[in-house]
Amino acid sequence: MLIIKMAFRNIFRQRRRTILTGLSMLVGFTLAVIFIGWGDGTYNNIIDEFTRNRLGHIQIHEKTYLDRPSLYKTIQESDDLANILDSTKGIESWTPRLFSAGLVSVGEKTAGVQILGIDPIREDQTTQFDKKILQGRNFSRIPSKEAIIGKGLAQILKAELDDEIVIISQAADGSIANDLYTIIGISSSGDDISDRSSFYLHLREAQELLVLDGRIHEIALLVKKLNHVLKTNNLLASEINNPDLSVSPWQVFAKAFYDAMQADKAGSYVMLIIIVFIVAVGVLNTVLMSVLERQREYGVMKAIGTKPKQIIKLVVIEVTILAIICIILGSGLGYGANTFLSKHGIKFGEGITYGGMKFETMKAEINLRSFLIPAVTVILCAALVSLLPAIKAARTEPAKTMRFH
């Protein structure tokens, strides 16, 4: 207890040294809090944009569908499954989908396409499909031989609204599936590659075309909170409890995207390491200067019987207390900055494009880890870096020091 009192007194006695050491810790901690908060916010913005507007946070398929997709690997629509999806805690919305490949033609132009059968109401609730329609409108509630095509496909086919489009594919019963539809909309998913082959049909008409009445390939779901995806996924899997179905989070069915984001996130820690290094150098310099300035003081302490380990404790405790004070002050500054960035973000003018997605504003996120990681890092860094000057102080020779000071 006496050592702690002495440490507090020394901190406030040497104000110039305290301010220099404290500033390096305060600035380093605050920058780290802002950097992690903004980094996490950006990371989650990209993930949420990618999953919420395209794939969903969770998907349900026939158990082997993801390994090798096939027209025949389907899920039977049922009221029981729909009730489970509607009642499971944490699920915001869900939408069924049907997929196949086909060949379309408008006049003399022909192109290969991916057929996507969607429920227009549920798809809009889940992925805001209405907002992706650049020209025209969404499907009628009652199937009316309508089709929506991607803007890239429209350019390839030189197709316009109200043009008739012919589709040819293979039905599940082995017959040739073909029909005539009217183009009622041209859409943009934000992915140019996908837009060159996207051919949307009303789910019921897609089922009729492919002879898959009451069957779908996928159910895409959104959860209310992105950080609850795994928890909700496990809960849903236990509720469904069907060995013939797989319930997968986005980290599984979009593994390439997940790995890319993890690599990007890991790379961001290089900047954090640089910040920590700057803090460490600043603390080492100021504490070492302090020890050199206080050689006579340490000499007197040893002369009156203070043990070397007690001097080491005193120096380390001084720096640790100062680090804690800076963390408290820095937490206030960091929280204020991240609160502002979480509401207003950083705007990029015309926006930046990442993986086919456009972002005009990147916002920070306020979370515990953005404070905890810098706090633990600064305290450990300060304590470890202070050991070298502390050991030097403990080795002070009383007679020699007092003679020359």
TrEMBL record:
Please give, as recorded in its UniProt entry, the membrane topology of this protein. Multi-pass membrane protein
Name this polypeptide is given = ABC3 transporter permease protein domain-containing protein
Query: Could you tell me which InterPro entries the record lists for this protein?
Result: ABC3_permease_C (IPR003838), Lipoprotein-release_system (IPR051447), MacB_PCD (IPR025857)
**Organism name:** candidate division WOR-1 bacterium DG_54_3
- Report whether Membrane shows up as a keyword of the record: yes
Q: What transmembrane ranges does the database entry give?
A: 20-38, 269-291, 311-335, 371-391
Q: Kindly report the protein's main subcellular placement as a broad class.
A: membrane
| Family named by the database record | Belongs to the ABC-4 integral membrane protein family. LolC/E subfamily.
Enumerate the subcellular locations listed in this protein's record, separating them with semicolons: Cell membrane
Alphabetically, which GO biological process terms does the record hold? Answer: lipoprotein localization to outer membrane
| All residue ranges annotated as the ABC3 transporter permease C-terminal domain in the record | 270-398
UniProtKB keywords: Cell membrane, Membrane, Transmembrane, Transmembrane helix
Which residue intervals define the domain MacB-like periplasmic core in the entry? 18-224
What cellular component GO annotations does this protein have?
plasma membrane protein complex
